[in-house]
Specification:
Layout: H1 5-14, H2 18-33, E1 57-58, H3 72-104, H4 106-132, E2 142-143, H5 145-152, H6 157-185, H7 189-219, H8 224-235, H9 246-251, H10 256-259
Parallel strand pairs: 1-2
Helix pairs in contact: 1-2, 1-3, 2-4, 3-4, 4-7, 5-6, 6-7, 6-8
Length: 263
Amino acid sequence: MSESIARAIRSALLERDPRTKVMAARKVARDWRLGRLAIAFDVSMPDVPGRPDAPELLPPNRMPKRGKGGSQRGRIALWHSLAHIEFVAIDLALDIVGRFGGEMGEPFVSDFLSVAADEAMHFALIERHLHTLGSHYGDLPAHNGLWDAAYETRHDVAARLAVVPMVLEARGLDVTPATLERVRNAGDETGAKILSRILDDEIRHVGFGAKHFVERAETLNEPVNGLWKSLVSRHFRGLPKPPFNDSARLAAGLSRDLYAGVA
């Protein structure tokens, strides 16, 4: 008898070792693609996924300053921060499938398991790059803000889609080009290639979020823009802040009139 998709996802979510979680996420996505997992959502998802002993997780306001971007310390802090974002993003993609895949259907499952596999690959690339800088994931503290957003929206798929792909991941579309340029100007061509790949993938990921949010709004017979703004104001601390990367957002299905007036 095939293992259920929910059990495979729960097992991957509970993995504590980063490299093991990377392999587990990629295996879930591969097994789903090859039809090896039963379409059954027969176990619940954990409220808190597995985490390694390091990094220490601090509230955002207690995070140390990164230091100047051109210094070795500043470069390590940047890449460590990016590694943590991608590590948590693995769990975000797995959790949205395990928690809401039953009600949302197989295309939703396929889309977000492909996101999980991408995030696992991103983390592996960044972790390898950190090693070339003489560091590794866990060397510095990190904050838990991304998972806090997942926990806040654990009961409502529309809220999860509104906040995680359409606010938090969309923010990555806004800030990554400037980071990429800074990394390239510092002579780190390998790092620039990694960030360029991540930016291309994240446009697609935000696009999945926008697509399924529109479908959910239609199911609920709610106006897309009104529902998004209502859910963001209810479940997100603060508001999306400019400057916005309008071209990348538009490529991901986020029109300017969606987030106009919320900043």
